[in-house]
Amino acid sequence: MVITDPNPDERGTERWFTISSSPTQNDIQITTRLIEPKHSEFKKDLFHLKPGDSIEIEGPEGKFLLPDKAEKIVWIAGGIGATPFIAQMQYLLDSKDQQRDIIFLHGLRSLDEDPCKDIVQQCEEAMPNFKRIIILSQDTPSDWQGEHGYIDDKLIQKNVPDSSKRQIYVSGPEPMVDAMKDILLSIQVDEKNIHQDWFPGYKEKY
């Protein structure tokens, strides 16, 4: 996406986004976060768009697609990297494709930054083989009983003991996605079963 700005910051006027709406929905949607007051000029321009304003869009590109129904799936996301999975969750619900075996490992800095709480709850209620595991890296509540830290080989092997037999989709900041591929290869996941969608320009680890 390109948004014209006569005074852009050093990151420029172009960004990559993953579509977070399903083919079953009429409108094309993207999901991003706005961090005040640290947001870029691009984010400022994006959030101030009005009906009738013009932007430049190319795509879609890539093949980050659901596999055959018989395949077991792992989704691994860092923060807002859940956006492609939001689209896929909506599609599974709308198309009544609710028998998929999916384990969703979702790294978050805090529960307040969860971009997909509502759609996850719908999937957990409708899909008997759907499970999301949140891994908190920073703001962990005192009564938190779940995972904390970062997604690594030990956490994957603990929560997905059959990871070598699943199709694994990884989405998030580019450093996180690249590191995750190395981790998956180290625990004997076949490279052809690893699918990546990364967001350039983000440094978060999750």
Short description:
By secondary structure, the protein is α/β, with parallel strands linked by helices.
What tags apply to this protein structure?
Rossmann fold; 5 helices; 6 strands; 206 residues; single chain; alpha/beta
CATH superfamily of the domain at 73-199: Nucleotide-binding domain of ferredoxin-NADP reductase (FNR) module
Trace the largest sheet across and list its strands: 4-3-2-1-5-6
Beta-strand content estimate: 15-25%
Average pLDDT reading: 89
CATH class of the domain at 73-199: Alpha Beta
Q: What would your notes on this structure say?
A:
The longest helix has 13 residues, at 174-186. Helices cover 24% and strands 19% of the residues. It has five helices and six strands. The chain is globular. Strands 4-3-2-1-5-6 form a six-stranded parallel β-sheet, sandwiched between helices. By secondary structure, it is an alpha/beta fold. The model has no long low-confidence stretch (mean pLDDT 89). The protein has a domain at 73-199: Nucleotide-binding domain of ferredoxin-NADP reductase (FNR) module (Rossmann fold), CATH 3.40.50.80.
Element layout with pairings:
Blueprint: H1 41-47, E1 73-78, H2 83-94, E2 102-110, H3 117-126, E3 130-139, E4 147-148, H4 153-159, E5 167-173, H5 174-186, E6 194-199
Parallel strand pairs: 1-2, 1-5, 2-3, 3-4, 5-6
Helix pairs in contact: 2-3
